[in-house]
Design a protein that fits this description.
Blueprint (H helix, E strand, L loop, with lengths): L5 E5 L3 H12 L3 E5 L3 H4 L8 E2 L3 H5 L4 E4 L4 H11 L8 E4 L5 H13 L3 E4 L2 E2 L2 H5 L3 E6 L5 H11 E8 L6 H29 L4 H8 L7 H11 L10 H17 L5 H18 L21
Parallel strand pairs: 1-2, 1-4, 2-3, 4-5, 5-6, 8-9
Antiparallel strand pairs: 7-8
């Protein structure tokens, strides 16, 4: 059992709420805040204290954990939290914010005397709910002990990528990993759509690749969500995947790399969102293979 910490969780969407529950199970004192308070309120039944403002949430905290939509949202919320922040507080920034935003967030931390950890996570709703995320982290060697109990509570393992959170090495690794996730999701949707168009039972395809190097647990998991109609509640929503795909494409452009698959995947996700699938699992990009109605041909 670790010593109890007071952890402020700012952002209680799919991932933030699950991470907050993992922290509570580990015995930590959790203060939760969300812009839409109704999304934070259910955590009270698990033992969290629901704060009315970011400043109230972070007052006296040992660790601040941010899990919001994007980098600008994190910066806005931390500015609201500023009156309650205490110099020397550890800040674990877990939002997928992109390479440019990490620098802005690290600058905010420096200006307010915070110990900044670039700490995005790999995983979706289910591993978040069970504390089995993979934490990608960069930050001061001397202060890692402050966040280790938090990372141990939310994740199955922590991969340290560097000792300078401002360098964004963890975020860079997260973008690389997410580029694979998004490409695999797009390919899964196209395989299912083509199978349907050609009158091929998807199970025939799964049988052909079973046990070989082309077989993937992820392919089967995402296919199952589409084929069984289990796209809600999402493990990772289309709307969030649209944002992440954009960050990946921009990162490539900034570093002189053309990412054709990522760009095409971003457009597929955007189409799926426009068809009304924004709040469904990202596997719903499958529907982008069809016309504007998003309906497979009969």
């Amino acid at each position: 059992m670790t010593d109890e910490l007071t952890v402020s969780v700012l952002g209680t969407g799919i991932m933030g709420a699950a991470m907050a529950r993992s922290l509570l199970r580990a015995g930590h004192d959790v203060r939760a805040w969300n812009r839409t308070r109704a999304k934070a309120e259910p955590l009270a039944a698990d033992g969290a204290r629901i704060a009315g403002t970011p400043a109230e949430a972070v007052e006296g905290a040992d660790v601040v954990l941010t899990m919001l939509y994007d980098g600008p949202a994190v910066l806005d919320v931390m500015r609201e939290a500023a009156p309650g922040l205490r110099p020397g507080t550890a800040w674990a920034q877990s939002t997928t914010a992109g390479t440019e935003a990490v620098g802005d967030l690290a600058a905010f931390a420096r200006d307010h005397g915070l110990v900044f950890f670039d700490a995005p996570v790999l995983g979706t709703r289910e591993p978040a709910e069970t504390g089995r995320l993979v934490v990608l982290a960069a930050g001061s060697d001397a202060h890692r002990g402050a966040v280790t109990p938090v990372f141990d509570a939310i994740g199955a393992r922590t991969v340290w990528t560097g000792d300078d959170g401002a360098a964004g090495t963890a975020t860079r690794l997260k973008l690389v990993a997410n580029s694979w996730v998004i490409a695999a999701t797009a390919a899964t949707g196209e395989v299912l759509a083509l199978a349907q168009a050609l009158g091929v039972d998807p199970e025939s395809f799964f049988d052909v690749i079973a046990g070989g190097p082309l077989d993937m647990g992820y392919l089967r998991a995402k296919s199952g969500l589409v084929l069984d109609g289990r796209l809600t509640p999402p493990q990772f929503a289309v709307a969030t995947a649209v944002k992440d795909a954009g960050l990946i494409v921009r990162a490539g452009e900034e570093h002189g790399v053309r990412l054709d698959v990522a760009a095409a995947s971003a457009r597929r996700l955007e189409r799926a969102a426009a068809q009304g699938h924004a709040d469904e699992d990202m596997a719903a990009a499958y529907f982008a293979s069809f016309d504007a109605t998003g309906r497979p041909p009969v």
